[in-house]
Amino acid sequence: MTTPTHDHPTPPGGPDPGGSGGSTGRDMDEPPKGGSFLGYLLRKLGGALTSMILVVVLGFFAFRMLPGDPVLKIAKERPMSPAQIAELRSQYGLDKPVIVQFWDYLVGIFTGELGESYVYRKPVSDLIVDYLGPTLLLTATAAILAIGLGLWLGQLSAWRRNSLFDKMASSTSLVFWSVPTFWLGLILLMIFGGTLQWLPTGGMITPGLDPWSFAGIIDVIKHLILPVITMVAVVYAQYLMVMRASLIEEMSEDYLTTARAKGLTEDEVRKKHAVPNALLPTITVVFMHIGGLITGAVTVEAVFSWPGLGKLTFEAISGPDLPLLQGTFVVFSAIIIVMNLAADIVYRWLDPRVRRA
Hints:
Blueprint: H1 22-29, H2 37-61, H3 70-77, H4 82-91, H5 98-111, H6 124-159, H7 164-178, H8 181-195, H9 214-250, H10 254-261, H11 266-278, H12 280-295, H13 297-304, H14 309-317, H15 322-350, H16 352-355
Helix pairs in contact: 2-15, 6-7, 6-9, 6-12, 6-15, 7-9, 8-9, 8-13, 9-11, 9-12, 9-13, 10-11, 12-15, 13-14, 14-15
């Protein structure tokens, strides 16, 4: 938000983060008794902790209801006697009572020992660390582009409300928003990777290339294009629509009329006054969907064979690889919970009206 000065009018009753707007700004900046930041933070931390406990419990019991026995599936891949199957079940701890398995699972969560993957025969924690980097690269790139594109088009659409540009931008974004992610990914894969053969069809880098060399970096960028476009196309509409609605609401405020009366151009009114105030409601949406974007990578990574946590989760489901499923589920859920907590904290810090609530 822009701190009001004598050249920049403040909206009546609007936020004044700098506290320079006289008694109104002072009242907005000073929360009432009982509304301290520490109390607010503790309440939010308590809610996040409760959600995390539910996630941990659900992560154990939900996957045990999946059809299929992982030991029997492994036994189908190579001939095994009943004694060998029983030994394998004992090795994985599946012969123990459920309550004992749950206790071992809880101990592993707190110690970072998430068990050993049935498929990869490696510690789950090591697999998560190895596959987390590609997922962060993919989702961070997609998030930056989706947020930038959505907020930019959203404020332009609102400022040109009911124009041809507004109708085209809004309708196009809604079409992409409604398209299933896997379907759009497959279409892009068939057109640009199959028919035209302009871009790689899968993976993160061509085998044999050094990812830190110039040629390797260019190759990774080429592999990123299709999955990033897929993720951006189905996400940016959310930011566009929220920004558009928020800015349209701000456009009816009297302080914008005052700003125009002082001789500011339309671009100055939009950039210096309307957009900073309209950005506040989008903060929560941005943080919430950053967490959701990472979980949404499961579909995209499976379609494009991107070597990240999403593809790892998809492969674990077919097992079912219980330790791997539990580990990725907890990691994905923890990311969403942390992002939601960050959204609450940042939004309270930015908007004094929330501090007075």
